[in-house]
Amino acid sequence: MSSTASGKNGTWRNWGGNVAARPARAVTPASVEELTEAVRRAAEDGLKVKAVGSGHSFTSIAATDGLLIRPQLLTGIRDIDRDAGTVTVEAGTPLKRLNLALAREGLSLTNMGDIMEQTVSGATSTGTHGTGRDSASIAAQIRGLELVTADGSVLTCSEQENPEVFAAARIGLGALGIVTAITFAVEPIFLLTAREEPMTFDRVTRSFDELWAENEHFEFYWFPHTGNTNTKRNNRSAGPERPVSQVRGWFEDEFLSNGVFQVANWVGRAVPAAIPPIARVSSKALSARTYTDIPYKVFTSPRRVRFVEMEYAVPREAVVETLRELKAAVERSRLRISFPVEVRTAPADDIALSTASGRDTAYIAVHMFQGTPYQAYFTTAERIFTAHEGRPHWGKVHTRDAEYFAGVYPRFGEFTALRDRLDPDRRFQNDYLRRVLGP
User: The whole model's pTM is what?
Assistant: First the structure.
């Protein structure tokens, strides 16, 4: 994974290739004790400290010129409590390993995002989410956290213990300390039936409220330059298991969604005028399919085509209007967009800086192929999103600052006050946090 330093000069790069940093030093602690010692030493040397996950954020949230902490030795399950319905894992555990380990134990998270390359702490600290009518982001499934704070002490928090820290640190942006372990709520493993089906843009937007209400997990992808979408409905099922056949899975998920899509993007990057006709063909290439499998095999899919992404959370009731404005803006412009626009939802939660904090939410994500200029498209999209009081995903491209966030997050001041208390000297500061949280 691209979280490893590339090149001899110790440069760290993110997965999207749009952020690079040169830390003064990097450590890979094998225990919480080693990590606290590294934080203390950095303080003595006057270095800022940042932990990095798998580099899947498109913002510079993990970049530092100080001490870079790599968590890949802090992995694995610490404890499974079947009576409480929880699992405690080390912060550097990749979601992929967590999902596999839980499945072996007959357990699962209730909901998850669509990729599982990230570490559990990186995914939760930035607010990674899937789609759900009733079930929320990965961070909303946290029941307890262990955090190394700026003075090197280890703080545990939950609804019972340090509840004011718990209210903020589940999506802490790396600003409150370094997460070393997370306790998640889990449940006995279950089956989901996935129904994937093409639908026109007009029909999906007209029926959005019903599609949302009738399905536990609804999402869709709109292909710019077309009136076509691909919808996904995931609902719990009594079974039996009917996974996608290996041949069909390879053809649709690898050959079409990664291989052909990669080639189409190369062509589009070289010849932007080819993008609309390619979009019309590719938006019709995926046929309807229904399958039943365990959660992580339904929720997640491989993403091998590299891209840069912006995603905003808008109030759920504003999503159709926002999307129609985006479609009209793309059609008016000379933009050529080869990646579909992804639309998902989440219920309101109680985490201070969650994109769904205090309001039922819909997400609109725009992507551009890695290496193509994305600024014009993202600027157009961001202007529309912010007009609807949009909240950008903390790990995806945006241009917002602390002043903006104070206006769209009612509990913004609660978070910054806690940061003042836990990190008064800004040991965990970097340029990104200075911009989004204020100095």
Answer: 0.94
